[in-house]
Amino acid sequence: MTNEPGSTPFQVDLRRHLREREEDRDLTRVIYELATASRYIINSIRTGELGVAGTSNLYGETQLELDVLADRIIRKRMTHTGVIACIASEEDDEIQVVDPNGKYSIAYDPLDGSSLVDVNLAVGTIVGIYKGADVLSPGRELVAALYVLYGPRCTLVYTTGHGTHEFAMNALMEYTLVQEDIKIAETGNIYAPGGTRNKYTPAVEAFVSDLEDRGSKLRYSGGFVPDINQVLIKGHGVFLYPHLKGLPRGKLRLLYELNPMAFLIEQAGGAASNGHKRILDVEPEGIGHCEPVFIGSKADVAKVEELIRTLES
Ligand code: AHG
Ligand code: MN
Ligand code: MN
Questions:
Q1: Distance between CA atoms of 154 and 75, rounded to whole angstroms?
Q2: Domain holding 250: CATH number?
Q3: Mind listing the pLDDT tens digit for each residue in 123-158?
Q4: Domains in the chain, number
Q5: Structural domain contains residue 9
Q6: Domain of 97: which CATH number?
Q7: Which end of the chain is more exposed for a tag (fewer CB within 10 A), N or C?
């Protein structure tokens, strides 16, 4: 969906983009409401006011942690769509049932990287959307996923299984299309390694050494959303938060962080693996399930899988 040469440029907004793709109206609504929620979240991040418009009535004068506030903003809007069955949030110990007959369920991390807010680094919201009431399904059952990146610009990246598309918030706080059908190259020269190196296992150490020998550039901010966004928008590279000595399941959560990102990256032609298999094929054992992750350019992910096969099995 680009402008014809010579024509007056027009801006494609998120709602129109979804409508033109003939996505289900209720799914469109859920995605659109998440986009609206992000306006309030970015406002709270930017101003530090934790009783933002639209929520102050509900929460009164109480000052909330930013991630708790972000959770409430999203939860409220999602509940009001009338189409949500279940809500699983990183900020909640239990899955909440909104309506057992609801059409969609969501699993989300309302504010990923919240410890980076104080130091003014970028943070994000990550959401996975499932059909029906079962959020404890493998990620291959996702019907849509998105993240919002609260950086110097506020951008939203979504997929409904037909490519991965980037939007940016404009002065009117509307999301307009930046890039449609983003593609990630087979191999890259950016790497974002999570965890501490002295805890790396032999295969992961060999993988990172190989990346360094190839002249890959270290690009790690400590925020999963900006770090993944860099790989996606630059169109190459790999992010890892591996299994570590003493932490065999890594740190990142399958439901709230890994599955939505894996869906988005696969839709851009990349890959996401736990070192043995596709992230989207991992059966969740519970809402807090963590997995190691290697995600980004396909050949880079295949390379680490091969090293793990040969050095660690
Ligand atoms: P959250 O703020 O939702 O708990 O998650 C932060 C995540 C992610 O953004 C990042 O990749 C990772 O934690 C970094 O963790 P460490 O700095 O603890 O290694
Ligand atoms: Mn998180
Ligand atoms: Mn979080």
A1: 20
A2: 3.40.190.80
A3: 999 999 999 999 999 999 999 999 999 999 999 999
A4: 2
A5: no
A6: 3.30.540.10
A7: C
78 and 227 part of one domain: no
- Whether 270 contacts 123, CB under 8 Å: no
**57, part of any domain:** yes
Site to substitute for ligand 1 among 148, 198, 240, 251, most atoms within 8 A of C-beta? 251
Residue range 44-66: mean pLDDT, rounded:
62
For residues 127 and 241, membership in a common domain is answered with: no
- For 276, the domain range is 190-312
In ligand 1, the atom with minimum distance to the C-alpha of 225 is: 9
Domain C-terminal end among 147, 179, 211: 179
What's the pLDDT score for residue 54?
Answer: 44
pLDDT of residue 50: 62
**125 lies in the same domain as 77:** yes
Considering every ligand atom, which ligand is closest to the CA of 70? 3
For range 54-79, the mean pLDDT = 75
How close is the Cα of 210 to the center of ligand 3, in Å? 32
Q: Which residues line ligand 1 (CB under 6 A)?
A: 90, 109, 112-115, 194-195, 222-224, 241, 251
Statement: residue 62 has pLDDT above 70: no
Read off the pTM: 0.94
Q: Are residues 207 and 81 in the same domain?
A: no
Q: Which is the closest atom of ligand 1 to the Cα of 195?
A: 19
